Amino acid sequence: MKKILILGAGGQVAQWVIRALAGREDIALTLLLRNPGKLPTPVPSNGSVLAGDVLDQPLLRQTMPGHDLVYANLVGDDMEDLKPFRRAADAIEASGLVYTIVRPAWMTDEDEVDYELTTRHAPFKGTVVSRKSVADLIASIIEAPDLHLHANLGVNKPNTDGDKPYFM
């Protein structure tokens, strides 16, 4: 059984990832978030909730062992130490960790899975992507971590090149 720790499990993309992996007998989810009340869906049968702050390093050192993969769904004002994001990505790439960095275009709430990938140094081919699409990519990485090992991926919806206005 693959054990997955999701940091920031209350986030919108994380919610799509949790839905994609819910009930899977081959995956056990640990959902770490500050406020368990932010989980809008019932906790899946293969999940357990851990209330805590991702900036609590002793908690992370205690929680991470025994997990096969950590998905860090982290953004927001409390992540000041990881801004700018480019500097954080550079630190991850230089860390010696086994990682995949996902850099989404502007995210929308469209209920669709439609995306393409670009590599670290290639320009984005589009300007937007749905949160559900980003979650689909993350779920596929969780299912097959070697798929994009040590990759830094841009993800966007095809044919949203900015020539046409996009309204949400």
Overview of the molecule:
This protein is of the alpha/beta class. The protein is 24% helix and 25% strand. It has four helices and nine strands, in the order βαββαβαββββαβ. The chain has helices spanning 12-21, 57-63, 85-94, 131-143, and strands at residues 2-7, 27-33, 47-51, 69-72, 100-104, 106-108, 116-118, 128-130, 151-156. The chain has a four-stranded parallel β-sheet with strand order 3-2-1-4, with helices on one face. A three-stranded mixed β-sheet has the order 5-9-7, covered by helices on one side. Helix 1 crosses helix 4. The longest helix is centred in the C-terminal third of the chain and has 13 residues, at 131-143. It starts with a strand and ends in a 12-residue tail after the last strand.
Number of E-type strands: 9
Assembly type: single chain
- Helices and strands, in order, run as EHEEHEHEEEEHE
Shape label? globular
Report the sheet with the most strands, covering strand number, pairing sense and barrel closure. 4 strands, parallel
Category by helix and strand content:
alpha/beta
**Through-space gap between termini:** 39 Å
Q: Roughly what is the average pLDDT, rounded to an integer?
A: 87
Strand order of the largest sheet: 3-2-1-4
Q: What Rg is obtained from the alpha carbons, in whole angstroms?
A: 16 Å
Fraction of helical residues: 10-25%
- Individual helix count: 4
Proportion of strand residues: 25-35%
Low-confidence stretches: 163-168
